[in-house]
Structures are given as C-alpha cells and as structure tokens.
Amino acid sequence: MHPARKLCLSLAMILAPAFAMAEPIATIKKLSGDVSIIRGADTLPASLGARVHQHDRISTSAQGRIGLLFDDDSRLAAGPGSSLSLSNYSYDRHTRTGAIDVQVDEGTVSVIAGRVAEHNPDALNVSYPAASAVAIRGNTFSVKVDNSKKEGND
Amino acid sequence: MIRAAATLSSVLLLLGISGCSVYSGAVNTFGPDKPVSDLAVNTDGELMLSKEPPPFCPAPVADSFEEVDQAMPAAPIYKQLYFIFDSDELTEQSRRDAEAIYQAVLERDAPEVLVTGHTDTSGSVKLNDALSKRRAEAVREDLIEIGVKPDTIRTFHKGESEPLIDTGDGVKELRNRRVEINVR
After folding, report:
1. How much is the average pLDDT of A2-9?
2. What are the OmpA-like domain coordinates in residue numbering (chain B) (predicted)?
C-alpha cells in the first residue's frame, strides 16, 4: 500500500469512532406510549420525527412502541417492553452498500432490510440471546426475547 | 387400550399428512407490503397475491408479533411525475398520480418529502436548470397547498444532467421531463 494512503487509512481508523458517535442514522416514524433513547450518559424521550444515532439504545415501556426508518430505507419496529441497541450502522448512498447491526436484549423487534441488503444479504445482522423465538414472514425478520431471568445470554 | 392407541396414531398420521407441521417453519417469500416472490420471475401473466391468511394451516408464530407490526413504518414511496414540454405543468396522467401521492403524504406520521426536478435535453443547459427548479417548486407548492408542512419538504434540481432515458443532446423526451418524488 502507498505510504500516504496508509497514513490516511490509519488516520481514518483513529478518527472514525469519534465521528461515529454523533451520526444520525434513522428517523422515528411511529411512536406510542413512553419510549426512551439512551445516548451516552443522556436519556432522552423519543419524539416523532426525531433522528436516532448510531450506538443509541432504545427502551420501550410496557405500553411503548417505536418504528424507525433508516437512511437506506431499512425499517425497524420495537414492541412494548423492549430494549435494543443500534450497535453499528453504515450506509453509502452512492455505492448503496453498508451494514446494520442491531442487538436485541429484550422484547419483540421486527426488521425489514433496505438497500444495504440489496446486494449483500449479510449486511443486516440482528443479534439476540440464544433462547429466543425467531420468525421470518415475507421480508420481515422478527425476534421475541423473553429475558426476565437474564439467563442464556451470550 | 390397543384401540385408543390406534386412534391416536391415526390422528397423528392425519396431522402429519396435512402438512401443517411443515408450514409453520417454512419461509414464505411473499412480503406483507412489498411482495417479492421467487415465483414471479417465471410467471408471464399478472400475479394475484391473496391477502387472506393461508386457507390450510394457521401461521402460529405471526400472532406474537402482531403488536410490534403496528409500529412498523410504511415503506418509502418513490414515484416519477411527468411534465408538459417546456412547462412546469404536470401531464394529465401525472396530475392524477400526484393526487394519490399527496394523499399518501397526508396519511403518514411525521412525513418527509424529497422532490427532485429534471428536464429533457431540448433547450440550453441554463434554461433547463431553471426549468427543473420551477418543476420542483411547483410540486412543493402543491404539497403545501394541501396541507403538508413546508419544513418537511426538501427540493432539489438537476436540470438536464440526469436523464432517465439517455437521448443525446437536443431531444424532447417525456420521460426525462419529470420530478422524482420520495415520500418517507
């Protein structure tokens, strides 16, 4: 590799996490009940039309529900009593490539892959505890995590 | 005793034959709002997709996700609206299409609309730049008129630089005289 390119790359790797923190990646399109967005040390109430960021954690109350539209047209819905984190997201609108990693710790979550998965089905990655119910209906991937005892996490 | 066992085994056999145990684990490639089927590729005629539940076997897993499905945002809409030559007036067909799209915007929670104006290659680059801008603005004004909040509409214009149909310069082409509208 060219030395200058190597420098650029290593600089990018050092700086990337700093920029990644504040990056908005999706818009809240559906909302009912109480839903919190946990961003770093802050807990913010979710509001319709607001943007969520990479690394945000989302927590819905017993009556809470939220629906997100990502910038690549992927969609995510979380039902009542859910806790999940948007652990990784990248999307390049010119090459139409990227990746979504969602970690579901509790509750029910459905995901419909958007453009990131158009040419690479592996671009969407949902992780969840081992003992969870999973369903694939049409283009919708759903997972239900019953995590009241916090057992079987891995 | 033997008779009971025989009855039980025939019931089990029947359940097996019905195929229901297989269905619930199967992957159905028809989507709820964007049907994409492997079958469609090989089908010549129009494909009718049933919206009814499958008649033979219930789909038990679906029930536990009913509540989360209510929170799933609607899929974004991507549509083209076409214009009369050298004008920011929609064609008759597109005017009807526009009504349906505008209605869809109003029905959404927290809608955002992206409008991008384009022209064909007939006329100068400078004139076409201005014309594409006028086309995007015309759609924006229509949207505001029916009650869409101005700050949720974003307009762009590309002049003749991004034709849908590659015609070469100086060609009138309806399909290039368009706005692309994206409802999110």
Report:
1. 57
2. 70-184
